[in-house]
Amino acid sequence: MAEVLTSEALNGVPHGFSTREGLQGEDVLPGAPMVKLDQVHSAEVVIIREAGGDVRTGDAMVTDRPGLLLGIVTADCAPVLFADLKAGVVGAAHAGWRGARAGVLENTLEAMEELGADRVRIAAAIGPTIAQESYEVDAAFRSEFELADDPFFRAGHGGHFQFDLPAYVAWRLRAAGTGRIADLALDTYADESRFHSYRRATHRGEETGGRQTSVIALPSLD
After folding, report:
1. Rounded-to-integer distance, Cα 120 and Cα 108, Å
2. Is there a contact between 216 and 10 (Cβ–Cβ < 8 Å)?
3. Assigned domain for 57 exists
4. In a domain, 77, yes or no
5. Domains identified in the chain, total number
6. In terms of residue numbers, what domain contains 63?
7. Is 183 helix (H, G, I), strand (E, B) or coil?
8. pTM given for the model
9. HSE, side-chain direction, 13 A CA sphere, residue 107
10. 34-89 confidence digits (pLDDT tens)
C-alpha cells in the first residue's frame, strides 16, 4: 500500500495526500469512485453531484454526496482539502499562485456554503507544497502581487525574491474566515525522495509530468 499522508485537522473525514508513489481510491475509501478535473490554474469551482460523465474544467471541487472521492493533482502548487463534517460537505482545491491570487480558495468556501457548510466550522489542510526556501521568483512575478503581499516575499540574490506560497494560501484562507487551517509543511522541491516537483524537474531538464494526488470524501452511507 502506498504511503498516504493525513492531517489531524481532517480527523473523521476520509482523505489523503500522496507522495510521489501516488495513491488509489482504495487507499482512502474502498469502493468509492474518484472524480478529477481538467486543471487550468483558474479560480473555477465545480459542484460535484455524481461520478462519471465528461471531465469538467476547473481547479476546485465541492460535494455533499457521500462516497465520492474528490481528487486533485499537484507538483509544487498547494493541494488544499476542506471539510465541514457537521454539514456533510467537503472540498478540494488546486492552489498555485495564479489560482490563489484569483480567488480559488475563497470561491471554494463560497461553494461549500451553497451546500450548507459554515466557514467557521470548515477545516482546511494544506498538503505538500513548494516552500519559500525553494521558490525563487523574479521581479516580474513579484509585480503580479500587491504591496500588501510583501510579507510573503523575501529578498533573494540578483534582484530575485523567495515566495512563500503555503503561507500566502494560509493567509487567504484565514482572511476569508476559515475556522481551522493546518499545513503539513512538506517541501516538494527539497524532498526529492518523496515528492515530484515541477520546478525541480524543469531546473534539471527532466521529464515534468510527475504529480502527487490529494483526495477527500464524505464517508459512504453503506
Report:
1. 14
2. yes
3. yes
4. yes
5. 1
6. 4-130+181-216
7. strand
8. 0.97
9. 19
10. 999 999 999 999 999 999 889 999 999 999 999 999 999 999 999 999 999 999 99
